[in-house]
Amino acid sequence: MEVDTGSIQSGLKETMKKLRFLLLSLLVAILLVILGGCSAPERTLSLDEKAQDVYRSLMCPLCPGQTIDQSQSELSAQMRAVVREKLEQGETKEQILQFFVERYGEGVLAAPAKSGFSLIAWLAPITGIVVGGIILVFVIRKWARREHESSSEPTAPTQEVASDEKYRKQLEKELKDFGEGGFR
After folding, report:
1. How many Cβ atoms sit within 10 Å of the Cβ of residue 136?
2. 12-135 adopts what CATH topology?
3. Domain ranges within the chain, ordered by starting residue
4. Please, which residues have CB within 8 angstroms of residue 58's CB and are 6 or more apart in sequence?
5. How many angstroms separate the CA atoms of 184 and 176, rounded?
6. What phi, psi does 45 have (nearest 5°)?
7. Phi-psi region of 67 (alpha: psi -120 to 50; beta: other; left: phi over 0)
8. pLDDT tens digits, 18-67
9. For 42, which DSSP code?
10. Both ends of the chain: CA-CA distance in Å?
């Protein structure tokens, strides 16, 4: 059986081109999502919508894992009242969040700040995806190169036949011995 190494190489090149295109598309999509979120024009929100947005951005100091939007504690109800009051006074979401951070610390924020050490929480997933993609490309290249090398090496059928012949003779000898002497 002969292997057409030219068609294997061209197939390998096509696969690598498709993989590069896929990884580049993934990177562009991630960048668009990141940049699109930063530059999206804000539509005019009603007071209730603004309040809900702030509620979802603040964690209840008493209820682990719950925002003040979800929590039924008395403290969360008071925090919601303060948020609504500050919105009615014309304060921005950032000002309100800063007000609560000053009183309860950074742990009151539902999402980590996008600055300082907390920036790692935002960049680590993206970095992990990019590094994982690069590692995947190298692993696939190595695998494809190994496959190509193994398919281009001619097999030695005479060596396999000789090995088979040796085992066949040993089997015949043992069967003959078994037939003459039975169980020993």
Report:
1. 12
2. Helicase, Ruva Protein; domain 3 (1.10.8)
3. 12-135
4. 67, 68, 79, 83, 97, 100, 108, 109, 110
5. 14
6. -105, 145
7. beta
8. 888 888 888 888 878 777 665 545 556 788 888 888 998 888 888 888 88
9. P
10. 46
